Recover the amino acids of this structure.
């Protein structure tokens, strides 16, 4: 029973990692920018929701607060691209990496200044409730995390394969210039991808904060999401999710089986192993540059 | 004597056969051209010789020794230099620095000597520089010596790439579409240079080119490829009038010299 | 604008372009040598700090600015330098050996770490080195017998041929030691850039594929760049350990790695000057923030307000402004200003403007 409990909590954590990694890969695929602040986006989205719905703050109904928070983060992502990232057009990838890292620092600072540094959790309708499946007792929030993740993945799948906008995004990600010639507004599409990245981050943040406490430095767990994305093979959306699940599941079991101090290393060790033996990741679609 | 030999070389990308059982040899001192429609596998042949790809079958020999065991970066040490179809220069460096990188295969100094810039490193540098200056004189690049590549016009970049390949003091020069994108005058210059490279420097040239004026003017022999297969080999005139070649160009809707 | 009439190839090989330039640098060196008699002990300590940053900055500049490889984990190699140096000093190895050895060991560790990672392209390398940076703290805790775990180590006084020095007792001596190391690293760096290996580094940065076609062994050259970069980081780490007096796992955290990167970007990627300009900014910014914060709170009568994390917040804002408005860094701005006066009144506004282009993807699908 103990192990099953570990499994479920690992799964729930993995879903959050997977969602952060998803946002990260989404933006990378479409714009080739790597958003090192995706974890901080998640943190910020969580705090906005807490601010909207917790009784200490505004106390708005949870079901209104969630879409509002998603909208705010989406708008944030969109404006960020318009105001800053679009100006990076033509600069090196490293410059973008450094820029997004700096952005993460600013978000962390802003969150700390606005909402202080104590851990807080989201007052969600799921908190503290249980689900019984025969003899199995599960926390409702953990079940909700898994459920929402599946739902969101499915919605994204439909979006990218069925909707016109999603297909335009795919086209723009494969060849910007060609997409531009075909009449796709590449710049606006990129801003929309950043918006989508913000929305996904908000969802991840809401899930994370409803199953545990969050503080401004929680955004650093975005680094674990990078590990997840790398394990999944960077260009692949399902890969990012599966990578997240692998990391999420490895963590509790490593903590269970390994001496203290070593268990934190496990996710990164897996990532480094993947990098060494399958540098393109487990689900890679990328290849070498053509001459 | 045969300098470079391809024996029954085949390369597949998944289901696509990019190079299909191609054999040819380039004799010492010869100018040998590969022609054919786009997608015929010409550049792929270059990439095979550069060891960017491993052939599925067949052998590639330089002076009767197989080069298939070598890494890409060891190929230049044999005296094989190349240019690229879509110019690959070091954009953030000057022309001079670009050409000096071409001297890398002649590097003799070790890490420690270079960290302290030992006298022998200085001597080496002077010698590299002398060779590079000869190339600069030959290709008339004096005006651009200290200019950054990023600010140079296309035609000049094309010449710098040729210069960088020559700076390696090659025995065989692989030119990947040297005249593509050049004006009529620039192409005329290219014809003179390729002739001089062959006659004055005694360097063998293997060339991929669409411009049949250039091919006809400089080539000793021409090999036509289509869909990875050999169509015809011979002098430029022979190949151009070969029925299979005409078929390959016209039959697929393409025209000679259309790129 | 000065036109140099070149009479021999040596004109391009020499360290200084012309005599006045050499004189300027000589004057700068004279000021640096006279510094202990010009400024007081506190500022001498700050100057030492800046030089240590500059050493680490040169290391990272070689890697990022000249070889085009990202590293978000250089604090890890500074840690290697700091811990190995103190351990060697305590086991009786004389300082004259332990300092260079700590650099070399950091370099070797760097190469070992780099070899599997360097096969990867830009972004993967950034993530892998980021992971290394995150793991450093854990590793320091795990390796407690050598590192003192969370308690950390205390640096013993330096014994140089019987002459004892430490940062507080003999700040001038420690300053000169740091200056000497800085000059040595600088000299080696300059030499490298005019030698074949340095050119191979920049070739790698601009086009791997054609560097390879010119006979540059990609893996070995990248590993060399990474190793040399880590040697400088290790030396800086060793000096930082001695400078700080005591250090533990928190000294070499992720923030330090990011600060290093920030330093070279602010200074100006791709120039040695940039490492020094960046070091000056990074070295003095905390003081500047503290002073201006006190000034503001006094002005408004707020008493002493402390906002945690304000330093990294300010760093980040500065960094973003530089990337957006002056991607060439302080050095780039300096070159522009100099060119403006040299060409006056013929300077054109878009002289340094770079051509922007649609992204040429490195991916293939």
């Amino acid at each position: 029973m103990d192990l099953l409990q570990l499994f479920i909590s690992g799964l729930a954590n993995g879903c959050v990692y997977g969602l952060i990694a998803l946002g990260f890969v989404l933006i990378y695929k479409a714009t080739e920018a790597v958003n090192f602040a995706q974890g901080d986006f998640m943190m910020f989205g969580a705090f906005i929701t807490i601010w909207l719905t917790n009784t200490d703050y505004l106390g708005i109904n949870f079901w209104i607060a969630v879409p509002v928070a998603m909208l705010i983060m989406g708008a944030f992502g969109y404006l960020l691209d318009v105001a800053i990232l679009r100006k990076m057009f033509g600069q090196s990838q490293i410059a973008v990496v450094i820029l997004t890292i700096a952005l993460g620092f600013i978000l962390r600072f802003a969150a700390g200044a606005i909402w202080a540094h104590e851990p807080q959790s989201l007052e969600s309708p799921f908190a503290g409730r249980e689900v019984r499946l025969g003899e199995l007792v599960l926390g409702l929030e953990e079940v909700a995390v898994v459920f929402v993740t599946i739902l969101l993945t499915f919605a994204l799948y439909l979006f990218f394969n069925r909707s016109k906008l999603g297909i335009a995004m795919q086209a723009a990600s494969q060849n910007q210039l060609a997409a531009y010639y075909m009449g796709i507004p590449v710049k606006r599409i990129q801003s929309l991808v950043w918006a989508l990245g913000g929305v996904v981050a908000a969802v991840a943040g809401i899930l994370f904060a409803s199953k545990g406490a969050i503080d401004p430095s929680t955004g650093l767990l975005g680094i674990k999401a990078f590990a997840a994305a790398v394990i999944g093979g960077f260009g692949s959306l399902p890969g990012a999710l599966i990578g997240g699940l692998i990391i999420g599941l490895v963590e509790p079991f490593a903590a269970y089986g390994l001496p203290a101090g070593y268990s934190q290393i496990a996710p990164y060790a897996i990532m480094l192993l993947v990098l060494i033996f399958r540098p393109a990741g487990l689900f890679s679609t990328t290849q070498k540059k053509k001459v | 004597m045969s300098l470079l030999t391809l024996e029954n070389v085949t390369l597949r990308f998944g289901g696509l056969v990019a190079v299909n059982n191609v054999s040819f040899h380039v004799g010492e001192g010869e100018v040998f051209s590969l022609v054919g429609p786009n997608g015929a596998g010409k550049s792929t042949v270059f990439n095979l010789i550069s060891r960017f790809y491993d052939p599925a079958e067949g052998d590639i020999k330089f002076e009767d020794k197989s080069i298939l065991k070598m890494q890409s970066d060891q190929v230049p040490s044999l005296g094989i230099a190349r240019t690229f179809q879509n110019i690959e220069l070091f954009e953030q460096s000057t022309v001079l620095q670009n050409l000096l990188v071409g001297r890398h295969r002649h590097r003799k100094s070790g890490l420690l000597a270079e960290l302290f810039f030992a006298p022998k490193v200085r001597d080496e540098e002077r010698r590299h520089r002398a060779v590079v200056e000869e190339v600069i004189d030959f290709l008339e690049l004096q005006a651009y010596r200290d200019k950054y590549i990023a600010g140079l016009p296309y035609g000049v970049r094309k010449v710098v790439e040729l210069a960088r390949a020559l700076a390696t003091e090659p025995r065989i020069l692989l030119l990947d579409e040297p005249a593509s994108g050049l004006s009529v005058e620039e192409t005329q210059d290219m014809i003179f240079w390729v002739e001089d490279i062959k006659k004055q420097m005694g360097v063998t040239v293997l060339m991929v080119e669409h411009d049949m004026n250039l091919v006809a003017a400089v080539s000793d022999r021409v090999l036509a490829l289509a869909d990875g297969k050999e169509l015809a080999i011979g002098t430029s005139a022979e190949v151009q009038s070969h029925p299979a070649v005409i078929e390959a160009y016209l039959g697929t809707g393409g025209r000679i010299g259309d790129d | 604008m000065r036109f140099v009439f070149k009479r021999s190839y040596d004109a391009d090989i020499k360290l200084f372009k012309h005599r006045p330039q050499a004189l300027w640098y000589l004057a700068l060196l004279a000021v640096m040598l006279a510094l202990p008699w010009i400024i007081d002990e506190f500022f001498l300590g700050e100057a030492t700090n800046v030089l240590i940053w500059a050493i680490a900055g040169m290391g990272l500049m070689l890697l990022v600015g000249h070889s085009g490889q990202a590293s978000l984990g250089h604090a890890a190699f500074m840690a290697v330098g700091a811990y190995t140096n103190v351990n060697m000093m305590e086991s009786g190895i004389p300082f004259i050996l332990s300092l260079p050895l700590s650099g070399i060991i950091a370099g070797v560790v760097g190469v070992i770490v780099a070899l599997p990672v360097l096969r990867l392209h830009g972004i993967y390398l950034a993530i892998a080195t980021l992971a290394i940076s995150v793991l450093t703290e854990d590793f320091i805790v795990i390796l407690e017998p050598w590192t003192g775990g969370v308690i950390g180590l205390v640096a013993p006084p330096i014994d140089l041929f019987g002459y004892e020095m430490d940062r507080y007792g003999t700040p001038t001596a420690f300053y000169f030691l740091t200056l000497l190391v800085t000059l040595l690293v600088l000299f080696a760096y300059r030499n490298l850039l005019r030698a074949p290996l340095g050119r191979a580094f920049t070739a790698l940065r601009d086009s791997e594929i054609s560097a390879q076609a010119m006979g540059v062994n990609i893996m070995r050259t990248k590993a060399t760049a990474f190793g040399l970069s880590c040697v400088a980081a290790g030396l800086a780490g060793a000096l930082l350990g001695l400078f700080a007096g005591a250090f533990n796992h928190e000294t070499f955290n992720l923030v330090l790695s990011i600060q290093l990167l920030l330093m070279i970007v602010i200074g100006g990627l791709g120039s040695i000057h940039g490492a020094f300009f960046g070091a000056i900014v990074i070295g003095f910014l905390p003081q500047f923030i503290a002073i201006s914060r006190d000034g503001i709170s006094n002005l408004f009568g707020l008493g002493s307000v402390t906002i945690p994390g304000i330093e990294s917040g300010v760093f980040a804002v500065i960094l973003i402004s530089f990337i957006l408005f002056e991607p060439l860094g302080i050095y780039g701005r300096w070159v522009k200003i100099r060119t403006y006066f040299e060409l006056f009144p013929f300077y054109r506004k878009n002289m340094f403007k770079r051509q922007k282009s649609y992204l040429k993807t490195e991916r293939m699908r």
